[in-house]
Design a protein that fits this description.
By secondary structure, the protein is an alpha+beta fold. The protein has 6 helices and 7 strands; from the N terminus they run E-H-E-H-E-E-E-H-E-E-H-H-H. The protein is 31% helix and 33% strand.
Length: 165
């Protein structure tokens, strides 16, 4: 079962649950931020309501994607694991009302719809789980990195010095 479009309010009211996996290759924005299109994102979406009766989605994702190390410029496997709680509002004004009522930074309040795309929710969560500057803990090929560090940096003023007679 690939992600689909749901009526988010009905999904929450019925306390539905869906789970599956989606290939990174099918997530357009995510594959742009990865080193290649390999990998699969496993997901679980659970509907329900919060203590105030607001419709609520709980989304959990996990998986491994390939990222490009910003230090050594080689790819490495990065494990994604994230869970978020999404309170559904009827409109933008309702988002602000719920935000003031809850005053809870651990939940996100979004405008729900009767045609909510699950793949977009999964992709948003995966993108938020990626590091801003991906790096190996320890780069595997330090020789290339060391060679870059050893190259002599030429001062722009040295060029001027050589032209002066």
């Amino acid at each position: 079962m690939h992600p689909s479009v749901i009526d988010a309010f009905e999904f929450c009211r019925l306390k539905e649950r869906r789970e599956d996996a989606i290939p990174v290759a099918e997530l357009v924005r995510l594959k742009e931020d990865t080193a290649d299109q390999s990998g699969i994102v496993h997901w679980i979406l659970q509907g329900g309501s919060d203590n105030f009766g607001h419709p609520m989605l709980t989304l959990s994702i996990s998986g491994t994607v390939k990222l490009m190390c910003q230090r050594c410029l080689t790819s490495f496997a990065f494990d994604i694991s994230s869970e978020s709680t999404l309170i559904l509002a009827k409109n933008e004004a309702n988002v602000d009302e719920i935000d003031v009522l809850l005053a809870d930074e651990s939940v996100d309040i979004i405008v729900g719809s009767d045609a909510m795309n699950i793949a977009e929710l999964i992709e948003d969560e995966a993108l938020l789980a990626l590091p801003l500057s991906p790096k190996h803990d320890i780069c595997p090929d330090k020789a290339a990195l060391n060679a870059l560090e050893r190259t002599e940096k030429v001062s722009p003023f040295a060029v001027l010095k050589n032209t002066k007679h």
